[in-house]
Amino acid sequence: MKGSISHTCHCRNSRTGIPYPATSPCPKLRNPKHGQWSMRQELAADADGKRRQFRHTGFTNAQGARRELLLVQALLASADEGNPKDRQRISDMIMLCAKERSALPDVETTYRLLKAGHSLTTRK
User: Model's pTM, two decimal places?
Assistant: First the structure.
């Protein structure tokens, strides 16, 4: 499943007052300290078959965005390849964390809960 990081800002063109389009971004984006970094990861489809993506923005550097992307990819990889239900359960958990704006759990805990058949989306 595809995932990526990107670097954006919300600057406006000083002459026109219009935000810079994606095709010609802000010239200050060459500076890694300008703007913010974000990550995006494709997840398993939901129960209705709808496509889902996990997005997280507001990182101050590329390393933070890359670290979060690698964590999401490791969580998805902890599901068995031959078991799409596990991948869907992990995707449900990731989407719940996004909805609640909570931190993603570590891979080992998620793997143990998944293999034991426990719910990944129930919070105590």
Answer: 0.84
Nearest to 39 by CA among 73, 12, 11: 73
* Half-sphere exposure at residue 111, Cβ-oriented, CA atoms within 13 angstroms: 11
CA neighbor of 8 nearest in space, from 51, 76, 74, 62: 62
**Which structure tokens are listed for 41?**
């990861």
Per-residue pLDDT tens over the stretch 87-116: 999 999 999 999 999 999 999 999 998 888
Q: Are strands 52-59 and 3-8 parallel, antiparallel or unpaired?
A: unpaired
SS (H, E, C) the chain: CCEEEEEECCCECCCCCCECCCCCCCHHHHCCCCCEEEEEEEECCCCCCCCEEEEEEEECCHHHHHHHHHHHHHHHHCCCCCCHHHHHHHHHHHHHHHHHCCCCCCHHHHHHHHHHCCCCCCCC
Block residue for tokens 């129960």: 47
